[in-house]
Amino acid sequence: MLKAMSTPPLSSPAPAAGPAPHPEQGSRARTVLAIAATLVAGVGVATQSRINGELGQRLDDGYTAALISFGSGWVILLVLLALSPRGRAGFARVLTEVRQGRLAWWMLLGGLAGAYFVLAQSLVAGMLGVAIFTIAIVTGQTVTGLTLDATGFAGARRTAVAPARVVGAALTVGAVAVAVIPRLGGDGFPVAAIVLPLLAGVAVAFQQGLNGRVRAEAQSALAATTINFTVGSAALFVATVTHLLLVGLPEALPTNPVLYLGGAVGAIFIAIQTLTVARIGVLVLGLCLVTGQLAASLVFDVVAPLGPGSTSATAVAVMLALAGVLVASIRWPRRRSAVTPPSA
Q1: pLDDT 10s digits, 206-226
Q2: DSSP conformation class of 156
Q3: pTM over 0.85
Q4: CA 35 – CA 42 distance, rounded (Å)
């Protein structure tokens, strides 16, 4: 009689080649990658300011430059929306919410702030230099965000005005003073030139609150961003046509293709923010964006200056602005008051 040959069970696992990686290692690596990508997005914001500032100078027309930049970004987003079923569903969901009165129509107007931001880039970034322009934007954004967080704007959770946040906002205001006061009047730039980016920072703070609410209703960052660019492009189109009717068309369009990439750069850094915010959270996202913005703006003013360029005062102002954002954003631990236990 032949003996039956023994075979290993089919479910027996194959011997492992080595120890399995700890799950926290992969999570930590993805977080580091998300932080690095968000820093790159901050660099992208400064890059867009640099491109749009020069385009406005070459055209001698900030309105046309802003429309070219914002409109090209809108076209890119429309293509992405057409390819995304989730994005299209989110877009339709927002329109339904507005028609049925569950979402106020004015909450769709965040794109007006984005349009004004790009217009400010095109009008005065070349006059101020990218670093001073960025400092002014960050200051307006930080001070306004302090107020909006305290009031719970657009349905957001209210955040108490802690002393650290007030100190941080004051540091950013001081940064503007350090960078700007030595250059006001005379051969420097007029006061109105610094007011425009300060107000743009205010507008961006409102835009973030409105877009956050629309994004929540749409359940799609792509849909919310496309709505933002649609509103902004429409506003810039009306403003630019009115401006051109008054002053006429620019003499000639620049031939350098890099100057037309502002919209594409904007679409890229918005996409990066959309992908990384779930991994690193809003707080770290904001810190990384500002850090990338300020660092890149200083580099641009040294390596490829636009306007007056940087001085030692500008470098100090950049450090002050970054310190202000850090102080305002970090959640400092609260002291617990001693509680005397009740007597038995």
Answers
A1: 877 787 788 888 888 889 889
A2: P
A3: no
A4: 11
Q: How wide is the angle at C-alpha 219 spanned by C-alphas 217 and 221, nearest 5°?
A: 105
* Nearest-angstrom CA–CA distance, 211 and 217: 10
Residue listed under structure tokens 């307006």: 140
**What is the distance between the alpha carbons of residues 109 and 233, in angstroms, rounded to a whole number?**
11
pLDDT in tens, 296-313: 888 888 888 777 666 777
Token pair of 232 as six digits:
């902004």
Q: What DSSP line would sit under 235-260, residue for residue?
A: HHHHHHHHHHHHH---S-----GGGG
Tokens matching residue 28 = 């930590």
What pLDDT does residue 38 have?
85
Every domain of the chain and the residues it spans: 36-249+260-329
How far is 285 from 297, CA to CA, in rounded Å? 18
- Measured at the CA of 254, the angle between CA 250 and CA 255, to 5 degrees, comes to 145
